[in-house]
Amino acid sequence: MPYWFLLGTAIAASAPLSTTETITTVPVVDAPPPPLISASPVPPTPGKPSVAVPKDNPGSWATTNDYPTRALSERREGTTGFKLSIDTIGSPTVCTITQSSGHADLDEATCSNIVRRARFFPAQDGKGRAIQGEWASRVRWQIPTVFSTASQTIADRSFPRPPRVANYKLLQIKEADYPADALLEGFQGRSEIVLSISTSGLVTNCNIAKTSGHMSLDQKSCDLARNWKFNPATGKDGSAVEGFSAHSFDWRLPKGSHGVPPAPVTVRNPFEKPGTMTLTLDFDSEGKLANCQSEYSGEFSFLPKGMMTPEQMCKNAPTGRVKPFVDKDGKDEPRRVILKFELTHQELPASLTTTEAN
Q1: pLDDT at 74 over 80
Q2: What is the Cα–Cα distance from 146 to 70, expressed in whole angstroms?
Q3: Average pLDDT over residues 281-304
Q4: Backbone angles phi, psi at 70, to 5 degrees
């Protein structure tokens, strides 16, 4: 979470009473800390004057998930001071910025999230009647050193019980796992993948369901997920069955990495050398991918390095299962599918050459 709430002040609007409360400061650590656990809030004593009191932990009112996207990508941090006007039922009605972070989007995120989530025991007068009050504090927006994470299963596609990750520690992405080229270019984003899980809990296939926009991040997501171990899906009788598990990888640049000077740009021709790629997929009568073979010649240097080697072409096959092919009688049958990609050179047609010269 953004490491937050350094000092809180509550003020009863219709009485001179004011109280300053020290709110626990969460230390800056190398990884997002566990949720801050605090004692249950104590409501005001009936019949006695009191300031507005938060009903829950103020540290839960804004989290890392609320970090404005642009501020995060531009590595901007800051501390926003604010003051809330609290009505007689304990809801914030107005949020005023008392100290700007220096960034309008961080200030706006502070007020919008706190007004939406904060709830209070309202302030009381000397007779214990609810009155309007105020409460003030600060939010420190700070990007954690380690921010990239993989999610638990986000979409269940196996019933009645889908596969589950056996060791959730594997969902933590280490800084060393960040693809070198993405780190150099300052790339970040979210990759969504769907894994095929065997009856023994192993990952047998990984498909990119939604790209991050950067192939190296997508590829690394699959590479990391292939090392996960699952408790397999189970059927109605409780026996292990094949299943699917969908996950997202949120790739966020490690703190301090943004702005790394890129390597010198050299002029090159990625289409200089011809080449061919052939992918042969054999599906059985149930539509399952039974065999994959690939052939590769040429350099194809316009593709990310290492992405289209023969090994990677089958490791990242387009699909692990399809609707079965049928013969002329409508019966399911095995089928071979051949995908070809070719890079060739041709002379430019004379008509285009003449037009260019003119």
Answers
A1: no
A2: 18
A3: 80
A4: -70, -40
